[in-house]
Design brief:
Blueprint (H helix, E strand, L loop, with lengths): L10 H6 L14 H9 L31 E5 L4 E3 L4 E3 L7 E6 L5 E2 L21 E7 L3 E4 L19 E3 L8 E3 L2 E14 L6 E5 L6 E3 H11 L12 E18 L13 H22 L6 E10 L2 E10 L7 H5 L2 H12 L10 H5 L1 H4 L24 H12 L15 H12 L5 E5 L2 E5 L4 E5 L11 H14 L4 E4 H6 L3
Parallel strand pairs: 6-13, 18-19
Antiparallel strand pairs: 1-7, 2-3, 4-5, 4-6, 8-10, 9-10, 10-13, 11-12, 11-13, 13-15, 14-15, 16-17, 17-18
The structure holds zinc ion (ZN) (2 copies).
Length: about 500
């Protein structure tokens, strides 16, 4: 597997891509391209569509030459190389592609023009988190800042990427199987970096057609002592960076939810469960298909399903126009077999994927996620929310609408109790651990706090397990308990 390279003094590149994006130059190597880099180390852009925003810089280590420049400048259109003179033409910043992005429910409005408010959850540009229409640009080239060279010192920086794959909130006719609905076909996948909602203000350099962000220029100048830049007298152009591709995808969603249980994409617990489920599907699919995990992308898809904000997971082929993996996985029987594989079921049972996860060596150590279960280089941005137990919950629920989504699942024990005990010990007043109708709880001097499953809703109708625990506490103490999802007990105990 080709390992991805990190930021490599690409601080400016990271700046360009927000809270830390990397921009891939190309996944394909060719003698010509290598020659290009060798001959013209200042410019690693490649013609056409080979630059992918969310991915990693995948120039091989041996291609990194001394005096590699800091990458910071981008242009919208493909570069045109004219050999042998290596003259470069930098066309304009390109046509803006408007798109609606909702930070409240994560939906994407890909209609043209996008609606003024979120068509899925109704969020407006004024509220927080907001819905807003942004102009996308597909960067197809990057180059360095002239006169800002410095030796490549072998130091690699790494920062999480901001870009996430999305598809439009379009209803698809899913095929229902067991307790999941699946659709596969070709769809447009947007990988968008909107700089955490702030977008990027691009200004044009005086010479040529190169557009830069002021912050990136300042950073490079501070690092290299490069001379001040002259800017063209044209207004700044605010854009989000994007890769827009038509490729094979499949969508999977849960059909029916048990009482009091829901993965709502508007809250972190729902997103954690959906993304964890997606990344576990991808890992299992990579094992079954014997492909690199990076051949498949995982994204969250949000739509309005008969008035309910609904989150679905999609997996798409990384390559433009698809390699066909998603089409295969999107067949209902194939997806069912993949879910069985995750759970160690099937006929005959295949424990290869499930058993190592449930083994004490992993389950006893991994409280949320680790490289052995869900984490990898490509999902760095999600590491803090990934949780293999939630992924297994959704896999079980996808196969069985009556699956118990509570702490009775073998993999939640003894973790739920252990996490609650540690939480109690960490409280300054020395809370005590108790079960309330089977539910772990922290009993403080003045009240009882129930520790709940992350997917349990706090509004009626409550999950029967939560309802029973509340009644138990009320009967014993005369007061109502509070509750805290184990997700927060683990990650935000104070
Ligand atoms: Zn929304
Ligand atoms: Zn793990």
């Amino acid at each position: 597997m080709r390992r991805t390279m990190s930021a490599l003094s690409f601080a400016a590149l990271a700046q360009l891509s927000g809270d830390g994006g990397q921009l891939s130059v190309s996944r394909q190597r060719s003698p010509w391209k290598e020659k290009q880099i060798r001959r013209q180390p200042r410019c690693c852009s490649t013609p056409g569509k080979s630059v992918r925003l969310p991915a990693v810089v995948s120039i091989e280590r041996h291609q990194v030459r001394r005096r590699l420049q800091i990458w910071m400048v981008w242009t919208q259109e493909p570069l045109e190389w004219e050999r042998p003179s290596w003259r470069i033409h930098w066309p304009s910043i390109g046509v803006a592609v408007p798109i609606g992005l909702c930070q409240n429910c994560q939906a994407v409005d890909s209609t043209n023009p996008p609606a003024a408010t979120c068509s899925v959850c109704g969020a407006t540009p004024q509220q927080n988190p907001a819905y807003k229409v942004v102009n996308l640009s597909q960067p197809t080239g990057f180059r360095t800042l002239w006169n800002a060279s410095r030796d490549f010192d072998g130091v690699f920086e790494w920062v999480p990427r901001a870009s996430r794959p999305k598809t439009g909130a379009i209803q698809r006719p899913v095929i229902n199987q067991r307790n999941f609905g699946v659709w596969s076909g070709q769809d447009t996948v947007y990988v968008i970096n909107d700089n955490n909602g702030a977008c990027f203000d691009f200004v044009k350099l005086a010479r040529g057609e190169t557009w830069v962000t002021q912050a990136a220029v300042d950073q490079v100048r501070a690092m290299t002592g490069a001379p001040a830049q002259n800017y063209a007298p044209v207004p700044a152009d605010t854009r989000a960076l994007a890769s827009i591709k038509q490729t094979d995808i499949f969508i999977v969603g849960i059909t029916r939810w048990p009482q009091g249980v829901y993965a709502d994409p508007r809250n972190v617990y729902g997103r954690a469960a959906l993304y964890s489920f997606g990344f576990m599907l991808r890992r299992a699919a990579a094992v079954r298909l014997d492909v690199d995990e990076r051949e498949l992308r995982v994204g969250l898809r949000v739509l309005n399903n008969s008035g309910t904000v609904t989150g679905q997971i999609f997996l798409s082929d990384s390559l433009e126009n698809g390699a066909g993996y998603s089409s295969v996985l999107g067949r209902p029987r194939e997806l069912e077999a993949l879910l069985e594989f995750i759970l160690g079921g099937g006929a005959p049972p295949d424990p290869r994927f499930n058993a190592p996860m449930l083994a004490v060596a992993h389950a006893g150590q991994c409280q949320s996620s680790c490289p052995d279960c869900l984490r990898d280089f490509s999902n760095l941005a999600f590491h803090n929310i990934l949780d293999w137990r939630l992924a297994l919950d959704l896999a079980r629920l996808a196969l069985d609408a009556n699956a118990a989504i509570d702490f009775t699942a073998s993999y939640w024990q003894p973790a739920a109790d252990d996490i609650t005990r540690a939480y109690c010990l960490g409280q300054p007043q020395g809370w005590t651990f108790q079960h309330q109708a089977g539910l772990p709880s922290a009993v403080g001097p003045r009240h009882v706090e129930l520790v709940t499953h992350p997917l349990w809703l706090s509004d009626a109708p409550l999950h029967p397990g939560l309802d029973a625990a509340i009644q138990h506490v009320q009967a014993a103490t005369g007061a109502s308990p509070t509750s805290k999802p184990v997700f927060d007990v683990l990650r935000r105990p104070y």
